Amino acid sequence: MDKPARPPYSAAEALECLKEGNERFMRGEARFPTAQKEVLADLAKGQQPYATILGCSDSRVPPELVFDAGCGALFVIRVAGNVLGDSILGTLQYAGVQLHTPLFVVLGHVGCGAVEAALASKFQGTEQKRRIEILLENILPALDGLDPAQPPDVLMHEAVEANVRRTVEEILKTPEAKARVAEGKMTLVGAIYDLESGGVRFLEQRGAMQSSG
Question: What share of the chain has pLDDT > 90, as a percent?
């Protein structure tokens, strides 16, 4: 198990790194197109990622490229719809307890196929394969209260954001997250990636979702 003595960045610094990296990515000025051999050799000794990213498996949303982050900078978990589950929660717990990353980001994206499938299931009764249905069960509660009469693009936009916010809220309900936030050792934010522009919109926090101590 890797146990760094202290996180290399504070949560605020880590968030700024992500924002600056995404700006470089959008400008076409990414600094990390490849990893040099000496960097890989150094990383083989251990890892100290400054942020944990729970993102979607969509091939168009690779966090390391989106945030122009070097090898070893991000601890990335990817699952369709950026949803939770026992193995995902266990991986998040590992990131907090063993890697001590100060910043956690739930990264959704515009045009998410899993969210679109959940909308079709909830409002049109569309059926999916059994295991996909199990996946969608994690998204459906986030869609409660949405108005299906809205234009499809508006509904989709609201659904993607609602899904990210619900995942953030569910993480914050765990005893580990509550304890780390109370101790000032964890900041948790939601974000949405735009496929066309390459930009990431960090969601405004609602309630006590973060601590930057």
Answer: 74
